[in-house]
Amino acid sequence: MLALGSAAATLALSGPVAAQETVKIAFIDPLSGGGAPTGEAGLRHFQYMAEVLNARQKQFRFEVLAYDNKVNPQETLIAAQKGIDAGARVLVQGNGSSAAAALTDFVAKHNERNPNRQVIYINYSAVDPSLTNEKCNYWHFRFDANSDIKMEALTNFMKTRPEIKKVYLINQDYSFGQSVRSQARAMLKAKRPDIEIVGDEVTPLQKVNDFAPYVTKIRASGADSVITGNWAQDINLLLKAAAEAGLQAGFYTYYAGGTGGPTVVRQTGLAHRVFEVSQGAANEGDAATQEFEAAFRARTGIGSTYPRAFNAMNALLTAMQEAGSSEARKVAPKLEQARLKPHVGSEGYVRPDDHQYFQTMFVHSFGPMEPGMRFDEEGTGWGWKMVGRVETKDTLLPTTCRMDRPS
């Protein structure tokens, strides 16, 4: 069974080293438009990991090819085909779930029709639960927690906060945003039936340039808290509008820590009033992980917002080493058995039933640096502080996946 340590750990070669094989990875995410900062950050993570793993071993040489999908499903499929035509045998994508749904269908059909050119799809950030339920695919592996898992962790934290009385939901109008809003309603009702939902709004994905009218509605509703799955410019502009309006609400988010987010949170002045559910922040890793973080920042100029990218690349390399090959049909059986200590946290593993990776989850708040904190974010002098932790075993949710495995 596949096993490995954190991203900071040294990876050993398995058996004798043959001639080095180049493994091309097609990175497909928004590199233009409102989602560009998010996509660019993801690209830097995978490029950095390619450099690290290339330096650690000589069996496989990773090369990352970048393609802009403009957060558009059709553009995603065009990019995927370009990547495959360029020799990529691993596709990486994360933003957003509508693009992921198109891509997973494409990969399944491509692999069936092209048995000699099969590809692995590594999903590092598209969290619509359907991708590992009714739309599950043998060739798809998700290294981010799905939105239901994240909402479970977030609402477990929120239920302990008696000051929360009125909640406003604002989310993006596509499959992921719809999942966030429906699960927020259901889980709050089960865990804190006294909380009143005073607003429930959806906005077009990455198309709103001014969230001031929405902030006006939030203020008028009397909400003391906001739940949002918004990402990229949609979370940054929402927080910017809140800061400009002086909205004194708590924000419970999935992606406030994305590129530009910490700067905007700092501008709100809401110390420890903006929360994010994630797989860990820079300041709580062990010594080796923190040294890895320091090296990553020095090389890329950004903080790590995607520790799951480190997990995915480590798992991918080790699966290839175990298989002695980069061929998808040989790598997939190894990857679905992966057991690995996550970059931050304790236990982590891929569930073979649906190819969902389970890991320790955290809730953080953002505020002024405190003793013992090494890393601030984006030069703000503020950093993420852990305020809640959910162990891997407590993140498990059932799946409806009925995996169609190749014969």
Describe, in plain words, how this protein is organized in 3D.
This protein is an alpha/beta fold and 407 residues long. The chain has two domains: 21-145 and 290-359, Rossmann fold (3-Layer(aba) Sandwich), CATH 3.40.50.2300; 148-278 and 361-394, Rossmann fold (3-Layer(aba) Sandwich). The protein contains eleven helices and 16 strands. It has helices at residues 36-56, 73-85, 97-113, 147-158, 175-191, 212-221, 233-245, 261-268, 287-300, 307-323, 328-335, and strands at 3-4, 21-29, 60-68, 90-93, 120-123, 140-142, 166-172, 196-203, 225-228, 250-253, 274-278, 339-340, 348-351, 356-359, 361-368, 382-390. β13 and β14 (356-359) form a beta hairpin. Keywords: Amino-acid transport, Signal, Transport. Pfam families: Peripla_BP_6 (PF13458). One of its GO terms (biological process) is amino acid transport.
Give a brief rundown of this model.
With 407 residues, the chain is an alpha/beta fold.
Q: Topology as H/E string?
A: EEHEHEHEEHEHEHEHEHEHHHEEEEE
- Taking Cα atoms only, what radius of gyration do you get, to the nearest Å? 20 Å
Low-confidence stretches: 1-17
Q: Describe the largest sheet.
A: 7 strands, mixed
Tell me the CATH architecture of the largest domain.
Answer: 3-Layer(aba) Sandwich
Helix content: 25-40%
- The CATH first-level class of the largest domain comes to Alpha Beta
Content of β-strand: 15-25%
Q: What integer is the average pLDDT?
A: 93
The dominant shape is globular
Number of continuous helical runs: 11
Domain Leucine-binding protein: 22-363
InterPro entries: BCAA_transport, Leu-bd, Peripla_BP_I
Signal peptide: 1-19
Protein name: Branched-chain amino acid ABC transporter substrate-binding protein
